[in-house]
TrEMBL record:
Organism (species): Flavobacterium algoritolerans
Name of protein: Mechanosensitive ion channel
Origin superkingdom: Bacteria
Keyword Acyltransferase carried by entry: no
Upper classification of the organism: Bacteria, Pseudomonadati, Bacteroidota, Flavobacteriia, Flavobacteriales
Keywords: Membrane, Transmembrane, Transmembrane helix
Membrane-spanning residues: 12-28, 49-70, 76-98
Amino acid sequence: MAFFQEYTRELIATGILGILLILFRILSTKLVRSYAKSNQTLEHRTNLVIKYIHLFINILVVIALIIIWGVQTKDIFIALSSITTVVGVAMFAQWSILSNITSGVILFFSFPFKIGDVIKIHDKDFPIEAEIEDIGAFHVYLKTIDGEKIIYPNNLLLQKGISILKDHFDDKEFMD
């Protein structure tokens, strides 16, 4: 009983934060689904972006809990510097993964092409003309007119010039 009296403010703040977490997760899910519906985005792409947003919200909640429960600032800095060091080394080794995930989220919200479009990637060494079969977290899956399947990294797709040759193709030669 003494625990509850001593930490009443922290417990109330934690409860309020829990309610806010649930509300933010529901609100962000509804907003992303609404955006996806208006732009006719596939369900699995929508779920992927929702997962990334929920991860970000959860990280913010953990930071808020640390502040609410009064963890000493020096302890936070020690923990964060240790985590940052480990993550920094891991991200340096896996920078392309982070870059591709970020690019996948950008493609979800702002790029003008959709699955089914036929695009041309303007790469001076390896130009590609293909239909977009799927857009994943890390790669875009393309299929050329010859039936060749190409897995193209999202981050490179944002760096190259793209022409949309046919919106939601209706040309039979690109179909199976």
